[in-house]
Amino acid sequence: MGAGYDVAVIGAGIIGAATARELMRYDLSVVILEKANDVSCGVTKANSGIVHAGHDALPGTNKAFHNVRGNALYDIWSKELDFPFRRNGSFVLFHDDKEKEQAKKLYERGAQNGVAEMELIGYEKVHELEPNLKTTVRGALWLKTGGITCPFEFAIAACENAVKNGAVIRTSTKAEAIERRGDGFDIATSKGHIRSRAIVNAAGLFADDINNMISEKKLRIIPRRGQYMLMDNAAGAFFARTLFNVPDRMGKGVLISPTVDGNLFLGPTAEDIDDKEDTSTTPEGMRYIEEQARLNWDYPDGRWISQFAG
Fold first, then answer.
1. Taking the domains of the chain in order of start, what are their residue ranges?
2. pLDDT of residue 306
3. How far is residue 37's CA from residue 203's CA, in Å, rounded to a whole number?
4. Which residues participate in catalysis according to the annotation?
5. Is the domain covering 86-147+224-309 a CATH 3.30.9.10 domain?
6. DSSP track, 73-100
7. pTM over cut 0.90
8. Which of the four pLDDT bands, split at 50, 70 and 90, describes residue 248?
9. Contact, 228 vs 285, CB < 8 A?
10. Model confidence pLDDT, tens digit, residues 34-67
11. Cα–Cα nearest to 226, from 67, 80, 50, 34
12. Looking at the domain covering 3-46+152-212, what would its CATH class be?
């Protein structure tokens, strides 16, 4: 029937990698199954890399609890695994009284969630701290615990640490079918069968497919593509903090943020699409990002060096 393990982690992105690493603290045999030819090849490789403070999650939810707790753990994880992390802080910018009221509500929500070090600041303070903002920005909710990281470096480091402590990783190994058998599971993969007592579904955009192989409660993930513009290292000096607008129903909107490598990036868009593997960028997406970024910054031409989507 194939090799047997206590736990099979399906997916070697940031969630699967971090989970496998944590499981190796216990007396367990763990296998990580990844359909790509390396770790961190899905959502983890192409996203904002923002470590959110936890101000916008609905109070009382798992997301609210884990966002704040996870944020605090990055100080520990980055030291243990030696991946880049910087607590640069975030601004949720407002431009008028209506947006200011929204920022106040986010402050209240953050307080309910246990977010520390928040401050509502006005015109003079926000422009003192970020002098390259347009004068139309009237103030901000300052989230001092917000941070930035490199998600794929975190995932790589966590997988290496898990393997060093005894985990087995199988790349180019897709989980194709799962059946309950006795007190465990039989996982049919593209490279043979594996037995496990438990499964951790960390398959990212394809987590619904894994769930639907075995659960009576069927799920459907609607993929939402985010396109980004990456600017050069010289542009990285324009802003120290991650800049958001007040969120809408599609998410946190187009942000401006430094990266841990010294660049600056703009994005993302938020497009519901049908193809989970469509990571193409479009002229329309780039124009939208430029339009939204210019609400807060008259950025210089000639700094845009690349674009990507995830």
1. 3-46+152-212, 86-147+224-309
2. 95
3. 15
4. 52
5. yes
6. HHHHHHHHHT--EE---EEEEE-SHHHH
7. yes
8. confident
9. no
10. 999 999 999 999 989 999 999 999 999 999 999 9
11. 50
12. alpha beta
